[in-house]
Amino acid sequence: MSYEISLLMVFSIVSLVWSVTSALTKPHIVFVLVDDWGYADVSFRNPAILSPNFHKLAETGLLLDRHYVFKYCSPSRASFLTGRWPHHAHQWNPPQNALVGVNINMTLLPAKLKTAGYKTHMVGKWHEGFFDPAYLPVNRGFDTSSGFMEGGEDHMNEKVGCATDFWKNKAPDTRNGTYDAYIYQHDLTEILNDANPNEPFFLYLPLHNVHTPLQAPDEWLNKYDIKSTCSKRRTYQAMVSVADNVTGHVVELLKKKRMWDNTILIVSADNGGAPCSGSNYPLKGCKGTFFEGGVRALAFANGGLIPDKMRGKSTQGFIHIADWYTTFCKLAGVDPSDSGEGKFPVDGMDVWPIITGDNDKTPHDEIVLGYNFNNSHPMQGA
Questions:
Q1: What pLDDT was estimated at residue 376?
Q2: What average pLDDT does the structure give for the chain?
Q3: What pLDDT does residue 24 have?
Q4: Residue 57 main-chain phi, psi, to 5 deg
Q5: Of 28, 73, 121, 329, which residue is the catalytic one?
C-alpha cells in the first residue's frame, strides 16, 4: 500500500471520528409545553394532584421559579419558536379563518437546529398559522409533525365544530377518534425508537392538555374520587395526570435509548391556569391577564446536563420563554442571530449560566410581557 493511500485512509478515519465526536457533544433538546397549566397544579404544590413524573423531574432537577410567558397560547409559542418578545412576533391567538401565522421571514428554532445536524420533531398543538402550506411545521424546520393546527379542539374526536383538525406532516391524519394524548404517546414512541442516539435530537412537545374542553378518559378520571372536588376540577386534575404520564413516557424512552445523559429537558406552562379550572395560588390573576398568575409559568429543567450542584434547587433567575431560542442555539453551536428585512432581531438571551448556577442573574435589563396591548385590538405584532 502506497504512502499516499495510507495517509488518505488515516485522514478519512480521523475526519469520521471528529464528525461523530462533534455530533455527540451537541445535546439532545426536549421542550414540553403544557397548555393552560396552573402554577399550583402539580403534586409538589398541591398533593391532591397525581403527577409523580413532574414531581420527580422537579425534585431531582431545577425549578425555574421566575419563568415568564405571554398571557395566552399562541404568542408564548411564537416567542419560543422565534426568540422574540411577543410584541415582536405577535400578540394574538389567530382566529380559525385568519390568513395569519408566524412571520414567514423569521427563522424558527427547528430550522436553526437543523443547520447543526439536528433531527427535529413536533408532536401536539401548533397554533402558529396554517392558511398556506409555507406555514406548516414541516415547512418551518421540523422533519416530522403530528397533531393539530388550531388553538383547541375536542380531545376525544379531534373536531373543531363540524371539521376535523388532525394532521400528520402535510396531510390529514385519519387516526382521529382516539383521545389525542394517546395518539401523541404512540407517535413519541415511534420517534424515539427510531432516533439515533449519536445524532443530535430536538423534540418540541406542545401538549393539548390541560386546555379546554375539559375531557379525560375514565382510566384517569377514576384515579380521583368523585366526591373529592367539583366535576370540572376533577376532570382538570385527571388531565394533568395524563400530561404527566406522557412526559414520563418520553423520559423513559430517552433513558432506554441511552440519550438521557446528554439531554436538556425543559417543562413549562404556556400561560397561567385558566379561570374556573386551573389554580395559580398564591399568585394573583389567571390566563388572559398580565398579573403573575397569567404570565409566571410553572416550569422546571432536568436531564443529564443539569449539574449535580443545581439538582433539587430552585432558581430565582428571570427567564423568558424567548430565551430558549438563543440558549438552545448556542448549546448546538449555532449563531442565534436572525436579522434581516421584514423582521425584528432576536430578543432572547443565553440563560444557560442560570441553569448551570454560574450566574443567577437575568441577562435582561427588563422582560417585556406585552407592549401597547389593547384588548379590543389584540392583533398587534410583526
A1: 54
A2: 92
A3: 61
A4: -65, -40
A5: 73
CA distance 306 to 264: 7
329 as an active site residue: the answer is no
Q: Which residue has the cell 447543526?
A: 116
How far from each other are the two terminal CA atoms of the chain, in whole angstroms? Answer: 63
The Cα 28–Cα 251 span in angstroms is 12
Low-confidence ranges of the chain (pLDDT < 50): 3, 5, 7-8, 10-22, 381-382
State yes or no: is 127 an active-site residue.
Answer: yes
Catalytic residue among 28, 127, 155, 211: 127
List 205's β-bridge partners, or say none. 32
Q: Which pLDDT belongs to residue 362? A: 84
- List 267's β-bridge partners, or say none: 32, 300
Return the closest-CA partner of residue 264 out of 3, 61, 6.
61
Residue type, 3: Y
Q: Model-level pTM?
A: 0.92
Q: Give, to the nearest 10 degrees, the angle between helix 323-331 and helix 73-82.
A: 30
Task: Specify the pLDDT at position 96.
Answer: 75
Q: Cell for 214? A: 375539559
For residue 97, count CB atoms less than 10 angstroms from its CB and return exposed for 0-12, middle for 13-18, buried for 19 or more.
exposed
d(CA 285, CA 171): 39
Query: What span, in angstroms and rounded, lies between the C-alpha atoms of 201 and 142?
Result: 11
Q: How is residue 79 written as a grid cell? A: 416567542
Phi-psi region of 15 (alpha: psi -120 to 50; beta: other; left: phi over 0): alpha
In the prediction, which pLDDT does 19 show?
A: 39
